[in-house]
Here is the input.
Amino acid sequence: MPEKKQRLLYVDMAKSIALILVVYSHIPGALWQPYLGSFFIFAFFFLSGFTGGTRASWKEHVLKRARRLLIPYVLFSACLVVLSSNLTLLDLEGVAYSRFCLYPLDVRPNIIFLRHYNSPLWFLTAMFVSDIVYYTLIKRIKSKKGLAISFVLLLLSVCAMDQLPVLLPWSIDTMPFFVIAMLAGHEIRQHEHVLSQGKFSVLILIILFVAACYLNGNINLSCRIYGHYIRYALVSGITGTLLMLIVCKALEGYGCSRILGDAGRHTLTIFSLQMAVIHVCVNTLHTMGLNADSGLWHAVISLSIIVVVFAVGTALSVVLRRLLPSVF
Here is the structure.
């Protein structure tokens, strides 16, 4: 029988915070991207490995993940693409290919696949592919030596696939990077005491995180952009996620914890539909003559958009869970 996971409040809180950063990064004029954008996608894969079990059979696990990831991918793609005003064959090809574009983002001319506010949906197929490879490995790794060899082989694969001239379908080229994140999450869960470190250890993590972000520059994992150095992308991803988990674990029991934890149970729907809601919010603000490119007003507008995105996404998620409880 498939295992039933017990939800951890601080993990749901961490998912909410990571998603807040994702949504903010898509708001026009978003600031501090080398720092805020350095770990939020990495965090979702790390947390998947952190909370994932290993008792289910491989077939049971694959079927469950297909139901929870691929069915939502098809449903959300249909809603966002079919309802668009200028549907073309390229859009349908994009749904099948499941990448934002065909070539690395700096290549011109390029072929843009996910054009109709469905750009975040690449994440669902990337998570599915990465999760299957991760689960295959974790079921077979029996020693620390095997784990170390897996990390090395995966890192070599990341470096090799980074040289490809095109972005592969379903994020196959970034899959080794995401599997590393999931294995790291799994290992940290085996040593959960690291989330209760003293102030000195937290300070070291902060220094490593800031240094890696400063040296590495912008990261965009949807388009296989690791920044200047893959190793720094891993350092910022791991340290940023650890710091977020440490903060969330420390905040358990406070008033904000329940709000963030509840929102963390609906991240899939919020993540998938965020661009459509952001578009409506930004257009509405422009119609009202409210434009905020910087400063305090930008922070107020951004916070308002994030609240609307979470409110709409959560409400839709609740409805979808009632209609399709085995999927959502």
Q: What stands out?
A: The CA atoms of residues 87 and 239 lie 42 Å apart. The mean pLDDT is 92.
